[in-house]
Every structure is written in structure tokens, then in C-alpha cells.
Amino acid sequence: MRTTERLILRPFQDTDLDAWAALNSDPDVMRYIGGPLTRAESDREAAGINAGWEAERFGFLAIERAADGAFLGAGGLSREVWYPDTLEVGWRLAREYWGHGYASEAAAHWLAYGFTELKLPRINSVTDTPNERSIAVMRRLGMTFDHTADLDFDGESFNATIYSMTAEAFHVI
Ligand SMILES: CC(C)(COP(=O)(O)OP(=O)(O)OC[C@H]1O[C@@H](n2cnc3c(N)ncnc32)[C@H](O)[C@@H]1OP(=O)(O)O)[C@@H](O)C(=O)NCCC(=O)NCCS
What we know:
- By secondary structure, the protein is α+β, with helices and mostly antiparallel strands.
- The two termini are 25 Å apart.
């Protein structure tokens, strides 16, 4: 378990799965990330995340609000197909928890973890170009625009915006 000022970052628990499935079935939340998931897909993703964390010590962990134990969503580091040599930092919160800085707070922890504990040389963040809220999180974290590219997700092409941060940049901010 890891903590930030307001948050607890930890593997998924069975008691998260209803709230995780609810946010994964919300078209607003899933608009830029492949569309709503079924309950089975949502459960499978949580199980995969926990297995990945056990095996590799990185992944998209659950985000819990320390004050009241509310399950907010998930965030963390992941390896995606398009840039397999560079881990990505990412975030996904239930709609009702947008607008409080929770995604940025969790992600700042995962950047620090990636650079100081995993000793990564660089971390990317990749989003569908119209996903302005996600790009705003990248900027808030101090990541900088890297490039755009047409990437493939489940057989469909999308225009991605890629921000990045190097270990050198992390250690001076
Ligand atoms: C992307 C996503 C996580 C961004 O959520 P968010 O709430 O906008 O981002 P943060 O949690 O960092 O919150 C920032 C907002 O909280 C406000 N805020 C309030 N208190 C704050 C605090 N203590 N610290 C920082 N920001 C704070 C900021 O001003 C900002 O508000 P604004 O958007 O009105 O300018 C959210 O939109 C989401 O889950 N989207 C669906 C999934 C998705 O697309 N994920 C990305 C895939 S690449």
C-alpha cells in the first residue's frame, strides 16, 4: 500500500469491483479509451492488474480516498503495445471524482516511483488527442509535449498525443 496526501494507492480488492465496473460502463469515462466494458471485462482487467503488480511491481493500482475509503478509480504505470520499451503513466477516475486533482496527485506519486524506485530513464503518457482533460493532467505533472502519432487500438487507428518526462527533468522539478 502506498499513500499520498489524500489518497491510498493499492491493489484491487473484491469490494472495489462493483464501483470499478460502474465506472468502466460509463460512456463518459470510457469515451477515449475504447468504450464501455462489460462486468466480465472489468473484473478481468482488475485481476490482470493485480497479477501484473505482483509480477512486475508496476501497474494501474486502485485509488482510494483516505478520508472516507471511497473508491475513486485507478492509475499508475503500464506497458502498452505502441511503445513497449517505455512505461506509460495513466489515470481513470469515476466521473463524480473529476475536478479535485486526484488523478494528478496519484500520477505524481507514480512518476516519482518510476524514476526513484524503478530507475526508469523516461516515462510517457499517451492519449487520444481530443482528450483534453488527460492532456491537462500531463501538463500539471510537468510532462512536456513529445509528438503526435497515429496508433492502433483494437484494430482501430486513433490520433494520439504523447507527452513525456525524462529522469533528468524529474530530478530538477
Ligand atoms: C483524465 C481524468 C483522470 C482527468 O481527471 P481530472 O479530475 O480532470 O484531473 P485531476 O484529478 O488532476 O483534477 C484536476 C482538476 O481538479 C481541480 N483541482 C481541485 N482541487 C485540486 C487540487 N487540490 N490539486 C489539483 N487540482 C485540483 C483542478 O483545478 C482541475 O480542474 P479543471 O479541470 O476544472 O481545471 C478524467 O477526466 C478521467 O478519468 N477521464 C476518463 C478516463 C480517461 O480518459 N483517462 C485517460 C486515458 S489516456
